[in-house]
Amino acid sequence: QVQLVESGGGLVQPGGNLSLSCAASGTIFSLDVMAWARQAPGKQRELIAQHDKRGTTTYADSVKGRFTISRDTAKHTVSLQMNSLKPEDTAVYYCYAFETYIQQEFWGRGTPVTVSS
Asked: Deepest of 12, 55, 63, 100, by most Cβ within 10 A of its Cβ?
């Protein structure tokens, strides 16, 4: 089993910046993908940024150019730098990982981000 723990959420004003971090622990053989998703009130969870172990990153259009995902493969951590935050970025942000060896995905419990003045 893999445990994912997020940190760094909170309240930020529109236009502000915030950084999220996620640390994976447990029985880890190979995390092919680590990613961030978010779920706004009344909406479905959406994947917004992912980083595979080869270094390829992809972003949802809604965050492209404002958010940056980074990963330390050796330490099993992934971060999300969020800049120029908007009220519509308000959501619970979840860390995601896919363990290649056992072909299983894992989710963190989420950390709330509120963008409001």
From this structure: 63
